[in-house]
Design brief:
Oligomer: single chain
Number of helices: 14
Mean pLDDT: 87
CATH class: Mainly Alpha
Distance between the termini: 36 Å
CATH architecture: Orthogonal Bundle
Structural class: mainly alpha
Shape: globular
CATH topology: ABC transporter involved in vitamin B12 uptake, BtuC
Radius of gyration: 18 Å
Helix content: over 70%
Number of domains: 1
Length: 264
């Protein structure tokens, strides 16, 4: 295809593939563990880091990464101690991140460039440096889930059993929270803060229509995420409409079609 002669489109294609791998695998854990709301809290809290990044004159993704990890660790810590209800802890970090982000964006002199791409995504503007970071994350996620598959499986479906089996549940909860945070941050540029949660849940919901097996669900989720991302990328390019929203809309359409076919 002639489109692949353009560097920006090659980067967008690679971003869609790497995002599908990271979000497909991590999203399966999120859905199976039923911590979608936690992921939503981390996602919106990351806006605080983006705002601080603009204000301090550093890469907003660095700020988002730091803030996301701190938020994820904070939610996990508060919830595990039992002193604050999990939903309350999520709401606190969610609200704090958004508030800090808005304040620092307002305080930033002049116009905050590319702010909309962080909120709504802009896969066609993903840089080569970001591709390398996404590749590194994908390799880490694949390696981690391959090496510790059984432990992650037990924690995802029956944490109490994992504890009685003397598995390092607390350590893995924190490690997985860090991976979730990094997955969210490095894929913000693909679909944006507003829609990143959809990339972590809709492909998994579609995969769940075919299988309940954890491993197969991850594999199918990656496939559906990439299919929707690539189709959405093409449609957004030729129709000249927002890429992030188009990718998520495509995912919903695929889910609806599969659901309809499976119903018959």
């Amino acid at each position: 295809m002639e489109l692949f002669s353009y560097d920006f489109f090659v980067n967008a294609f690679l971003a869609s593939l790497l995002a599908a791998i990271s979000c497909g695998i991590v999203g399966t854990y999120i859905v199976s563990r039923r911590i979608v709301f936690i992921s939503g809290g981390i996602t919106h809290a990351s806006f605080g880091g983006i705002g601080m990044g603009y204000y301090l004159g550093i890469n907003p993704l660095i700020g988002a990464g730091v803030f996301s990890i701190l938020s994820g660790m904070g939610i996990q810590l508060f919830s595990s101690k039992g002193k604050v209800r999990e939903d309350s802890s999520i709401a606190i970090w969610w609200s704090l991140g958004m508030a800090i982000g808005i304040i620092f964006v307002y305080l930033t002199p002049g116009y905050a460039p590319n702010l909309m791409s962080y909120l709504f995504g802009s896969i066609l503007t993903v840089s080569t440096g970001e591709i390398w970071l996404m590749l590194a994350l994908a390799i880490i996620i694949i390696s981690f889930f391959t090496l510790f598959y059984r432990t992650i499986l037990y924690i995802a479906f029956d944490e109490d059993f994992a504890k009685t089996s003397d598995l390092p549940v607390v350590l893995f909860n924190y490690l997985l929270m860090i991976l979730i945070s990094l997955t969210i941050v490095l894929n913000i540029r693909v679909v944006g803060i507003i829609l990143i949660l959809s990339l972590l849940t809709i492909p998994q919901a579609t995969a769940n229509l075919f299988t309940r097996d954890f491993g197969r669900m991850m594999f199918y989720s990656v496939g559906f995420a990439f299919l929707a991302s690539f189709i959405g990328l093409l449609v957004s390019y030729f129709a000249d409409i927002p890429s992030g929203a188009t990718i998520i809309f495509t995912q919903v359409v695929i889910f609806g079609l599969v659901k309809l076919v499976k119903a018959f």
